[in-house]
Structure formats: structure tokens, C-alpha cells
Amino acid sequence: MVTRQLPKPAELLELMQFKKPELDARKRRLDAALTIYDLRKIAKRRTPKAAFDYTDGAAEGELSLARARQAFEDVEFHPDVLRPAERVDLSTEILGGPSAMPFGIAPTGFTRLMQTEGEVAGAGAAGAAGIPFTLSTLGTTSIEGVKAANPNGRNWFQLYVMRDREISYGLARRAAAAGFDTLQFTVDTPVAGARLRDKRNGFSIPPQLTLGTIVNAIPRPWWWYDFLTTPKLEFASLSTTGGTVGELLDAAMDPTISYDDLAIIRDIWPGKIVVKGVQNVADSKRLIDAGVDGIILSNHGGRQLDRAPIPFRLLPEVVREVGRDATVMVDTGIMNGADIVASIALGAKFTLIGRAYLYGLMAGGRQGVDRTIAILRSEIERTMKLLGVSSIAELEPRHVTQLQRLVPVAAPVAAAAETAASRPRAPRATAGSASASAAAKTAAKGDAAASRPAKPAASRAKA
Ligand SMILES: Cc1cc2nc3c(=O)[nH]c(=O)nc-3n(C[C@H](O)[C@H](O)[C@H](O)COP(=O)(O)O)c2cc1C
């Protein structure tokens, strides 16, 4: 039998605790995002389709990206109990310097397309959070502009070795002069991957106004307001005459780059040098033996070779081969701080985020990137506490099992018995285991190479 009473006003008042409404719409929007996927949803709402798809999309059937994300979902963590972890220290050492957390911002091309603050927002947010920021060769803010946005933090530069070598060398020298401490030499882009969404959207650089883009702009007035009222959207370090992204990449990149180029860049670059886009054990070993300061296991966020190996899956074997002291980093598919924790536990020294940063940028400029970093920070911290670990150094392979979904399907028992005699059995997998376009030309801006007229790419084909 329940005893009832009249509600007491004082008790009712206690229940009625209204929060002060947040008047800043951007902050309200961003605070409501609890995960990177939430930021992605906001980004999609606020960004024109062609720009969102350029960021969100990958190559061909986009299988590499989906598999990479699935591999992170297929992590099983093994916590220790009764281990006090009241405070966790997320800081780490990477490539001769500190980082407040075990991740940095990956290089991304054409970043101001996503949101006009672009690299300035990324570099500023990274600097404030104490993590490194990487500027792409195909960035939309100059080397010096990034330095100004992140004057006291760590800036890294990503280099594409282009057909016109002097452009690349000039950029590397400029980045070194501006105090960038690490060079990422990207090697997974001999030709452009087939970004089918871009083709279907008719996406080109610079963006063209068509009837479709105008219709698509109607519900996204702020993006267009930013686009039309801020400095022209263009590559900051290269000048081009336009074309699709694929045409621009094919015109600029040299498919014949080799270890000789690595040796030349090492001579030019005074700081640390890491090779980005490594995708097997043998290359990892060869590069580490050749004395590079680190490697980044990456398939370019699934934007180049579709069905490429999942970088996170390569980690255990690569680390075993090159040794736990070598600087092995990983990217592709990171959408949660727990993905970062799992990577570190399996031997990565550091991780990079591409889209997770860009979703934040599209969702709310600089504040959006701050939100991305805050979400990842709290996820890393919580995962470590739940594992019973209080520092990055304490994370070990025993904390993680990689579960595997992509194994050959076993034949049903009856059918297997019928066919056993006639067919050999499939092996069982075990867990753990351009041509240049005349439409597009490139040249360096703001250095000696800029004064030379850009030759049509076709006539610059390597001897
Ligand atoms: C829109 C976009 C542009 C990119 N541009 C470059 C680039 O210019 N140079 C480069 O080395 N990698 C580039 N990447 C790859 C990233 O550096 C990184 O390897 C990848 O985004 C990691 O995967 P994630 O997006 O799943 O985190 C780009 C990625 C995206 C999404």
C-alpha cells in the first residue's frame, strides 16, 4: 500500500532547476554534439553537398574507409580492476617534442573549402590544445599564415614531391625557415584516387556556380556568405588554372618518385622526416632501416587505393618487425578517442586525425575544431580510466584484442561434407593476423619558383 501526500512546494522547487539558456547559437549547436559522428551530422547540414562530399568521401566504392572504421569498432578492450586511475596523464613525446595528447591534426588539402576559417582554425585549435598541426602542400593558408596562427605550438609540413621538383624543394625550405619541425613526405599518391562523389557532383577547383550548386546553397546561406565575403579560395602555395581535383593531382604529382627523392629531401630538410602512406611490413622495415625518423601507416583515409590494407590492422606486425622503439604512427578511420587508445596500446607512438578535425571545422569553424579536440580528449581520458591506466606509457598490447569480421565464410556442415571430396577447402584466416591534364597546371607561390611561368603539365613530364 502506497502512502500518498500533497506535493510540498519546497520539494517541487528543488526539482525545478532550469539551466540558463545558451544564447550563442554556435556554442549551443556544438555543445549538443557528444561524438564526432554528431559533429559530422551538423557539418552535413551546414556545408554545400560538393564540399561535404569532397571531405567525407573516399575512393571508388569507399571500402577502405568503411573497413578502417569497422576495424576500430571491432576492438575489444581488457581493463584491469582495482587500479587507481583518478588522474590520467595524456601527454607524450613525439619526434623530439611534446604533445599534450597522443594525436595531431593530419594534412588536408583545400581546407578553406570546408569552412572559410580553414587551416587558421586548425592550427589555432591545435596550438591551444598543445598538439601538432600539419599543413598540406595543397593547403589554402600559406606556411607563414599557419605559423602566425600557431606561433608557439608545433607545426608540421606535408610534402608532395611534384613533377617540378623545385616547387617541392622551395616549399620545404620555406617551411623549415618558418620553424616547422617535422616533414611528412606523402608517398601514397602516385596518381589521384577515383573520388566518384566529386565526379558525380561535378566538383572542381575553384568551385563553379551551376544551377545545382545554387539550389543546394539555399538552405546553407552562411557557408555562401563566408565564401563570397572572404579572400578567394585557392591553393596558398601553388597556383593552378583549375580542373577537377583528380586532374590537378595528376598534373602535379610525379608517379616516378623513389628512394632517391627521399635522400634528396633528407638533405634539404633540417628537422625530423617521416614517410606517410606506408602500407606493408617490408616497406616499414626498409624505411626505418634507411634511417627515417618515423613512418605513418596510412591509406590516405581511403582516398587513394580502395581495398588497401587497414592501417590499424598492420600495426601489431609492423611494430613487431621494426621494434617498439621505432616511431610508428597511424591514421585512417579514427572517429573516437578509444580508437586512439587502441592504436597506442598496439604500439603506435602517435595518431593523426583527418576528417574528425574537418567535421568539427565544418560544424563551427575554430570553435568546432576545439569541440572535436575536447570530445576526443574526454573519450581518451575516460577509456584510459576505465582500463585502469593512468599514463600513455602504461598502455600495452594486452589491453586490446582486434576482433575480425572479414574472414572467409565457413561452408555449412552438410554442404561441406558433400563437397569435401571434390573441392579443396578455403584457407582459414586467424584473428590478429596519369597522365597529366592540360587543363590543370601548378606552380609555386611566394618563393623563387613562383616567378617561373607554369609550363603545361604535359610538357613537364619527367625525362
Ligand atoms: C579532405 C581531405 C584532404 C586530404 N588532403 C591530404 C593532403 O593534401 N595530403 C596528404 O598527405 N593527405 C591528405 N589527406 C589524408 C589525411 O592526411 C589523412 O591521412 C586521412 O584523412 C586520415 O583518415 P581520416 O580522415 O579517416 O582520419 C586528406 C584527407 C581528407 C579527408
From TrEMBL:
Highest taxon in the source lineage: Bacteria
Signal peptide location: none
Pfam families tied to this protein: FMN_dh (PF01070)
Domain FMN hydroxy acid dehydrogenase intervals: 28-405
SUPFAM superfamilies, per the entry: FMN-linked oxidoreductases
UniProt keyword list: Flavoprotein, FMN, Oxidoreductase
Cofactors demanded by this protein: FMN
Spans annotated as Disordered: 418-437, 442-463
Keyword Oxidoreductase: yes
UniProt keyword annotation of Acyltransferase present: no
CDD domains named in the record: alpha_hydroxyacid_oxid_FMN
PANTHER family: 2-HYDROXYACID OXIDASE 1, S -2-HYDROXY-ACID OXIDASE-RELATED
Similarity-based family: Belongs to the FMN-dependent alpha-hydroxy acid dehydrogenase family.
Protein name as it appears in the record: Alpha-hydroxy-acid oxidizing protein
